[in-house]
């Protein structure tokens, strides 16, 4: 019998880290999406958490199969939104329900936190991820404009 998939919040409601060990387990999966993260992964994530970021992980027998970093944002055009910084499934475990479990976990959080919107940005080259987001009921409501300052 295959191990059961579980989704856990590894940060508290204030963004504080609940269990340090989850960061080292999450890092290899997270880097599959964000290979430019600094060598001090834990330090970077502590800054993200201190600024309102939170992390959830999908696990199977204590192994991290997916990672989501997210936060709450209030803005003028949507109200309260749960914004997903990163949503990644381990490449060796895609199309097995990991992404869907994480996404539904985030959607439950958004509803429980009385959010008006669940939102994320996705690189234009990530067409496989886009198919997944469309299947989950997401739409593209706007263009995202950016000017790099560094």
What would your notes on this structure say?
Helices cover 31% and strands 27% of the residues. The chain has 150 residues and is of the alpha+beta class. It has one domain: Gcn5-related N-acetyltransferase (GNAT) (Aminopeptidase). It has a 5-stranded mixed β-sheet with strand order 1-2-3-4-5. The longest helix has 15 residues. The model has no long low-confidence stretch (mean pLDDT 91).
Report the total helices.
4
Net shape: globular
Strand content: 25-35%
Number of strands: 5
Distance between the termini: 50 Å
Quaternary structure classification: single chain
Low-confidence stretches: none
CATH homologous superfamily (4th level) name: Gcn5-related N-acetyltransferase (GNAT)
Give the overall average pLDDT.
Answer: 91
Give the CATH class.
Alpha Beta
SSE-based structural type: alpha+beta
The side-by-side strand order for the widest beta sheet comes to: 1-2-3-4-5
Helical residue percent band: 25-40%
Helix and strand arrangement:
Layout: E1 5-9, H1 21-33, H2 41-50, E2 54-60, E3 63-75, E4 79-89, H3 98-112, E5 117-120, H4 127-135
Parallel strand pairs: 4-5
Antiparallel strand pairs: 1-2, 2-3, 3-4
